[in-house]
Amino acid sequence: MQLQKATRKKVKIKMAISAPTGFGKTYSALLLAYGITKDWTKIAVIDSENESASLYSDLGEYFTIPMKPPYTVESFCQAVDACTNGGIEVIIVDSTYHYWHGKGGLLEYNNSLGNNSFANWQKTNPVYAQWLDKILQTPAHFICTSRKKQAYEIVENNGKKTVEKKGMEDQIRDGFSYEMTISFNITTAGHLCEVDKDRTRMFVDKPDFVITEKTGELIKQWCEQGVDVVAQRAADLKTAAATLKASKTLDELAHNWTAVKEFQNDLLAVKDELKLKLTPKKTATA
Questions:
Q1: Which of 128, 147, 139 is nearest to 52 (CA)?
Q2: Which DSSP symbol is given to 284?
Q3: Torsion angle, CA of 114/115/118/120, rounded to 10 degrees?
Q4: DSSP assignments along 97-143, one per residue
């Protein structure tokens, strides 16, 4: 374990769009996705909303994976793998609702475990973490839509209890939006959007706006800033190989092998070839 200088790296966006039904989550997600990739064939929708994503097929030739119940974490992970194996760059999850509230979703799974709530969540939390990690760790851009509904709370005043409106709440596990890099809320039927969370700092303190392709373009520009980790590692591996190949003796090879510890798995064949080359040949005796 050692200190290292913080370095800005290229990233894949992980974002959420929340809205009540009919406010344009799917359409907005598609426009965002196209702004990010500029290629409809690099976009796929994991669609658990009764194939509603196909209603916008006039926009371009994007792909869908229609999902049916049960909405298990296993089937979700299989859908994500199908996207990445197919060269998809932007994955739209439309919507997260079913993996939490739907048939076979996490709440139903949790309730099926018995009456001990504490013990149940000890088993359910790792399954939720598996679902969330599939989004966060997969090397693709993710746009996750989630439903909002009216929330209520019971208020007691002078011994009298009343039910009051609390505002709108996401129908997904509390804290999900805070795992995202950006969280947008579509607040009106006219598709006006406000920012709930924004680590990019591009949309903070800005007036409400309508999501367009341009929004996706801005997000892509932000994602592309910084070091390309894959290219950087390839360059570092090349340097490490050159260091090994500069060895003139077995002692130098041993020293240089230690110096390239991070790349030893990749350079094992190079090391073995050099070791064979540098080992003194035995002279034949009469």
A1: 147
A2: P
A3: 10
A4: HHHHTSTTSHHHHHHTT-S-HHHHHHHHHHHHHHHHHHHHHSSSEEE
CB atoms within 10 A of CB 248: 8
How confident is residue 1, by pLDDT bands cut at 50, 70 and 90? low
* CA dihedral sign of residues 119, 123, 92, 16: positive
pLDDT tens digits along 203-242: 988 899 999 999 999 999 999 987 665 666 787 888 888 9
The encoded tokens of residue 91 equal: 């994955």
Helix (H) or strand (E) holding 164: strand 160-170
Q: Are 40 and 200 in contact (CB under 8 A)?
A: no
pLDDT tens readout for residues 156-167 = 777 776 555 455
pTM, rounded to two decimals: 0.77
Q: How far is 73 from 99, CA to CA, in rounded Å?
A: 7
